[in-house]
Amino acid sequence: SSLDRTAKAERMFELMDGFLKNDPVSLQKDILDHVEYTVARSRFSFDDFEAYQALSHCIRDRLIERWHDTQIHFKRKDPKRVYFLSLEYLMGRSLSNSIINLGIRDQCADALSQLGFEFEVLAEQEGDAALGNGGLARLSACQMDSLATMDFPAWGYGLRYQYGLFRQVILDGFQHEQPDYWLNFGNPWEIERVHVTYPVKFYGTVEEDISNGEKYKVWIPGEMVEAVAYDNPIPGYGTRNTITLRLWAAKPSNQHDMEAYNTGDYIDAVVTRQRAETISSILYPDDRSHQGKELRLKQQYFFVSASLQDIIRRFKDGHKDLNQFPDKVALQLNDTHPALAIPEVMRILVDEERLGWNEAFDITCKIFSFTTHTVLAEALEKIPVDLLESLLPRHLQIIYDINSYFMEELKRRIGLDYNRLSRMSIVEEGAVKSIRMANLSIFCSHTVNGVSRLHSELLQTRVFKDFYEMWPEKFQCKTNGVTQRRWIVVSNPSLCALISKWLGTESWIRDIDLLMGLREYAADISLHQEWQMVRKINKMRLAEYIEATSGLKVSLDAMFDVQIKRIHEYKRQLLNIIGIIHRYDCIKNMAKDDRKKVVPRICIIGGKAAPGYEMAKKIIKLCHAVAEKINNDSDIGDLLKLVFIPDYNVSVAEMIIPGADLSQHISTAGHEASGTGCMKFLMNGCLLLATADGSTVEIIEEIGEDNMFLFGAKVHEVATLREKGSTIVKVPLQFARVVRMVRDGYFGFQDYFQSLCDTVEGSDDYYLLGADFESYLEAQAAADKAFVDQKKWTQMSILSTAGSGRFSSDRTIQDYAEQTWGIEPCRCPL
Ligand code: CR6
């Protein structure tokens, strides 16, 4: 009875002695208990890694307390919830972030030092959770942090890949990929929910049945797999709210196939069942295209099906009428990867809940919103019809039904404009008939957004022009943001302390607009001194890392010039390298006296190439070949060094970004949907050398052109430059000279680099490296000039941080909550 339960709860609370305590002594006791009972080592002998494990469990306990309270609170208040569906999350490490969000950083450091351990050393023991490729995946992680911090009733859903993004190993300058079996040493940040499981169906046939005189469809699956939930608590900062990132792992289904067992082939039957686990075993490492792979499609449906069963179960626990679903649930599609959720919701409503088609479609269109993260039409996901038909036969029928409804509606509005109808159709006819997931997502979502203003405009005027003209009200812009908790507080503690000191408050950690207050002191000499000191400390940390990974000693007086991101032709790492070769060539040809005027540079490049992306891999090799030459040229000395940082990931970024003086965001205008790295550098007071692409256009508005180094063709000029080609493009002689050097084998590997050189010469220079080269060099020269004037540089640096507030994911999430999801904060009482 409920009376018994209350009495039991009270008795338990008494026994528990209240909540866990956070003073250093209590923390020490808990750490030691975990050493003994969880890690199973003696309290008198454990190493750094074991101490990290014990500390993590001690923090995890505290997260769980808050997480329980939050979930109970959400259940009691029953607010409208947002469900963020994403196939990728780049969480990186969790320990420091959790401790900071819990507000117990100092207590933990004290507790550890009394036990003879150093917090920073233990934090380094943790491996990265790299369940994603790049910007999109880290964005999901930043947004989860903001959702928790801002008290929104939110859930993240995703896949628990056993192998995260591959490890990059460089051998002789070439990239090799190695599997990232990240769970090898256990993962204290997740909680396995053995009882939260759902069956997920695949293959089979669709049959018709009649019940109460009505015909309906039944999907008879050919295969069944079990989805098991792994919950990752995500703590907010300055709040008790701790939300859930629920990741699904595939397990063999418990529904026994009696036939197979009875025929006596026991071993084969078990082995076949075991194969189910492969569904969640590996992350696809290509962030350009995901087309036509059955396993990828299986992953998408697996995650969508389990998440929706979970979401509907939660809804039904308290609500009967599915027409209320849109009042309680918002589903966010992070790119088209989870777009199968649309036909899946339709299938559940029509086939299982027996709602009428129109009623079901009405509900569906009210719950979905869709974010697209790309500019390139060719990067939009398409699923071959054959594949869908065999794996998800009922979903294909539903998509066809949606499409005929869509086409009818279109014909009513635009008549028989067949070209336009076929452009907009969800079904693409052609050599391989396929389903356009973006068209499906746009038609069935109430809002569609781009990830920067420029990107959102390009969606309206180019990529989805037809759709925009039809439903302008659907289209929105949600400029990306990054969390200052991870990207300043965790990764740059000295800057964090400095900002708080000068603003006289730590409130900016929750209220980022306060950073603007730094503008007032931008010219203050004592702030300058402290600012420079902080930057020096961070450069030192980075220099040590460079020495440890590449053996190269670098001077702290040099400008640290960084480009870190996935390797892509459109991101133009090649432009950077060609610029470096040019700089090298200039220094070599300079008179001794002139060399004194050269601003010394450490050029740092890092990033992974998709395993099948040949040109990207050649760029990595070229970078190494050039570095080999320059770094060993005694003529050059400290004036120029080139370093490739291997295995770039979130925790490496946390170390590099605070130590960078200059960072490069140099994509050909119109290609980077947003870019988020630039925001992290900006927050950390690193100056940007950039094209007016993606979110940099908005950064210019915040800090002004004078505080960064802008160059290159603008979006509207790019098309003309490509069209008119050599008649208007002025490729400087220096550019041709550098390309010639590479072609002639100046850096070795002559044959290997020819095809790379082909991509940047003449009419093949699609990304306009040649056309932008001159203005690139001018921007570089301006950066050199500014660096010599440290007063000016420091002021620009302070103004960069001060102007970075708009690029916090708190602002992004606030915009989504108000304009897209219609949700309100639901704060758990302390
Ligand atoms: N590769 C965009 O290219 C954007 C992020 C996050 C990307 C990048 O400009 O900042 O998404 N797109 O919105 C995709 O992943 C499809 C990315 O990370």
From TrEMBL:
This protein's cofactor list reads: pyridoxal 5'-phosphate
Q: Which reaction does it catalyse?
A: [(1->4)-alpha-D-glucosyl](n) + phosphate = [(1->4)-alpha-D-glucosyl](n-1) + alpha-D-glucose 1-phosphate
Q: Indicate whether Nuclease appears among the record's keywords.
A: no
For the modification N6-(pyridoxal phosphate)lysine, the affected residues are: K680
One GO CC term on file? cytoplasm
Give an example GO biological process. Answer: glycogen catabolic process
**Is the keyword Transferase assigned to this protein?**
yes
Keywords of the record:
Allosteric enzyme, Carbohydrate metabolism, Glycosyltransferase, Pyridoxal phosphate, Transferase
Q: Which domain of life is it from?
A: Eukaryota
- The UniProt record lists the EC number as 2.4.1.1
Q: Name one GO molecular function term.
A: pyridoxal phosphate binding
| Function recorded in the entry | Allosteric enzyme that catalyzes the rate-limiting step in glycogen catabolism, the phosphorolytic cleavage of glycogen to produce glucose-1-phosphate, and plays a central role in maintaining cellular and organismal glucose homeostasis.
Q: Which family does it belong to?
A: Belongs to the glycogen phosphorylase family.
Specify the protein name. Alpha-1,4 glucan phosphorylase
Specify the species: Cucurbita moschata
